Amino acid sequence: MTFTQVYNKLLKHYGHQDWWPAKTSFEVMVGAILTQNTAWTNVERAIARLESRACLTPQAILDAPLSELTECLKPSGYFNLKAQRLRNYCQWYINAGELPCLSCIDTDALRKQLLMVNGIGPETADAILLYAFERPVFVIDAYTRRIFSRLKLLAGDAPYEVLQDQFETGLQTDVAVFNEYHALIVCHAKDACKKCPGCIDCCLSYICPSCKR
DNA sequence: TACCAGGAGAAAA
DNA sequence: TTTTCTCATGGT
Questions:
Q1: Which residues touch strand B (CB under 7 A)?
Q2: Between the CA of A168 and the C1' of B1, what is the distance in angstroms?
Q3: Which nucleotides of strand B come closer than 7 angstroms to any CB of the protein?
Q4: What percent of chain A has pLDDT over 90?
Q5: Cα separation, A64 vs A100, whole angstroms
Q6: Average pLDDT of the segment spanning A111-138
Q7: d(CA A96, CA A65)
């Protein structure tokens, strides 16, 4: 099976996902940081708290007392860590001139800048690049490693950039496809057999070796 | 009760 | 250089 064939099967099975679930590009950025090792439902609560306190702008996040910021972030877990990471990101974002200036920067250069912000790793940087800046970069997450190593399309333990390169060369360079594909992978992973975390359901013609479903 | 969730960075080996 | 530990809440 090829990357394109998997994509087509997932799309046919689950339909369009309409990602990223956010009202603004800055909200996408905030969500990308808050979702680190955290279920999205908890991130939604934290974002709602930020919004209710008018803290959903970069300057408001920097101006808010740390205690208020951590209080907003509590539902998403790691609140002390994420408060600092969010502030680091907002400081960089404002200094860099925000969306109008950053939109003019080459994707590779922008990615390097993002990775220099403490708290922004490869996956978070790529989620921001793809879903907020609409750049054609493929997001590799734990689900992608698990599913595609089981399909024997990837080596699950390979470095992040190696896997990303394999995806990007195996697909047409298309922001819309990269956007949809990652969303479908997450959707599929959540839908997979609950008794056997990580197994792949029948829509990919794979029988879980543990549960024999 | 235990485990997992849309990771990243620091510390230890 | 690679592996392990820490951060933390909420749902199942």
A1: A 19-21, 31-32, 35-40, 42, 77-78, 81, 117-125, 127, 131, 141-143, 186, 189-190, 197-198
A2: 42
A3: 3-10
A4: 81
A5: 24
A6: 97
A7: 23
DSSP assignment of chain A: --HHHHHHHHHHHH--------SSHHHHHHHHHHTTTS-HHHHHHHHHHHHHTT--SHHHHHHS-HHHHHHHHGGGS-HHHHHHHHHHHHHHHHHTTHHHHHTTS-HHHHHHHHHTSTT--HHHHHHHHHHTS----PPP-HHHHHHHHHTTSS-TTS-HHHHHHHHHHHS---HHHHHHHHHHHHHHHHHS-TTSTT---GGGT---TTT--
Cβ atoms of residues A40 and A208 within 8 Å: no
Q: With 60 as the cut, is the pLDDT of residue A89 above it?
A: yes
Ordered by where they begin, the domains of chain A are 3-17+140-204 (no CATH), 25-131 (1.10.340.30)
Strand C-contacting residues in A 22-41, CB cut-off 7 angstroms: 37-39, 41
The 10s digit of each residue's pLDDT in A159-184 is 999 999 999 999 999 999 999 999 99
pTM attached to this predicted model? 0.93
The confidence band for A211, taking pLDDT boundaries of 50, 70 and 90, is: very low
